[in-house]
Amino acid sequence: QKEVEQDPGPLSVPEGAIVSLNCTYSNSAFQYFMWYRQYSRKGPELLMYTYSSGNKEDGRFTAQVDKSSKYISLFIRDSQPSDSATYLCAMSSAGGSEKLVFGKGTKLTVNP
Amino acid sequence: EPEVTQTPSHQVTQMGQEVILRCVPISNHLYFYWYRQILGQKVEFLVSFYNNEISEKSEIFDDQFSVERPDGSNFTLKIRSTKLEDSAMYFCASSSGQGVSEQFFGPGTRLTVL
After folding, report:
1. What is the mean pLDDT of residues B43-49?
2. Are the beta carbons of A100 and A34 closer than 8 angstroms?
3. What string of DSSP letters covers B34-73?
């Protein structure tokens, strides 16, 4: 079983739609969960950072972590064409200096 | 806003040649990383570096790879004898390492081995 699994998509939605992106993982040592956004030919940019279980909201973005199911989600409300990018989930067993383990990324296109 | 920079943006080399990829991490950060992303695949950890030594490395980071912080600002990744399968995007990242801290990524160097 792969350590982090993410449906690569592609996912295409109309502007204004609610988008749900998901990852599952197998390593129960993971405590820190991140969502990065990556535009074409650019480096990953951190969107959301969650420690342990629960929800975190930042504007149109909501990150959820369910450690019992080893499942994390990112919701994007009122999606915009500028949200079109590849979304990567990433995890680590410790914050700060620990290496990140990434999912494969989901390519999202928001159509105007 | 501080950012991680990487040079060159694209490097083309012949198989068997040595390449050095350069990174300038964010100035007050203490932890430095290299990741790579082969086209169509996930971002993979290569190595982390702290206090002038490697703190962790992956199975990918074999004897052909080395890292160095030659001065107070640069962080380099050297591949001694490149192989075709080293073709990838190489990302440098840095973090302050304190508490819950973000890893900031550079824009990447696209390495093409012919």
Report:
1. 96
2. yes
3. EEEE-TTS-EEEEEEEETTEEEEE-TT--TTEEEE--SSS
Selected for mutation to probe chain A from B24, B89, B100 (highest A CB count within 10 Å) is B100
Give the tens place of pLDDT for each residue, A9-67: 899 999 999 999 999 999 999 989 999 999 988 899 999 988 878 899 999 999 999 99
Instruction: Using CB atoms, pick whichever of B43, B91, B100 lies closest to residue A96.
Output: B100
Q: Is A9 exposed, middle or buried (0-12, 13-18, 19+ CB in 10 A)?
A: middle
Q: Give yes or no for A43 touching B (CB within 8 A).
A: yes
Is B109 near chain A, with CB under 8 Å? no
Strand pairing class (A45-51; A101-102): unpaired
Cβ-based contacts of B104 with chain A (< 8 Å): 46
What are the tokens at B16?
Answer: 């068997």
Alpha carbons A100 and A88: distance in angstroms, whole number: 11
Checking if the pLDDT of B99 tops 70, the result is no
Residue A27 has a CB neighbour count (10 Å cut-off) of 13
Q: How far is A14 from chain B (nearest CA, A)?
A: 25
CA distance B44 to chain A (A): 7
Q: What does the block give as tokens for A10? A: 């592609």
